[in-house]
Amino acid sequence: MQRFTISLDDHLAAHFDDFIALKGYINRSEAVRDLLRERLDRVQLQVKKGQPCMATVSYVYDDLDQTVSMRILTLQHDHHDLVISNMRTQLAHSDCMETVVLRGEMSAVLKLAEQLIASRGVRHGNVHVVPLVLTKEGHSHTHNLQKKHTHLKPIS
Fold this sequence. Notes:
It is a single chain. The protein contains four helices and five strands; from the N terminus they run ααβαββαββ. By secondary structure, it is of the alpha+beta class. It folds into two domains: 1-46; 48-156, Alpha-Beta Plaits (2-Layer Sandwich). The chain has a five-stranded antiparallel sheet. A hairpin with a 4-residue loop joins strand 2 (83-90) and strand 3.
């Protein structure tokens, strides 16, 4: 068994201790192991080679900290092929919540989502993934001058 140390601010540690008590864990280590297993299992189920998807990534950060803002912006620019749109909402004087919509191959989308959430200074990150399937290939409509295109729809 390996040991590692993590640092938590007092507020997050108190919330984690409340979670531990609520769920009946004997200690913090067991709770961390379960959270890690759950997160790793969820990612493993979602990643299918070549599977198209759309995702929303929401996170909170201090937008007055220019280093955080630049890291997030650089990641989005570096992956402009996956980023469809983003929306920023000011929560308080310095706290900002941003939601980014991504579309692309599942493993690439998840990798970018995790990079955004894992960026130093980002808090409360969450990803919602919708796997997609190809419905028809190469059909056309009269309303768009006969341009051929494909449609993706959510997996039911």
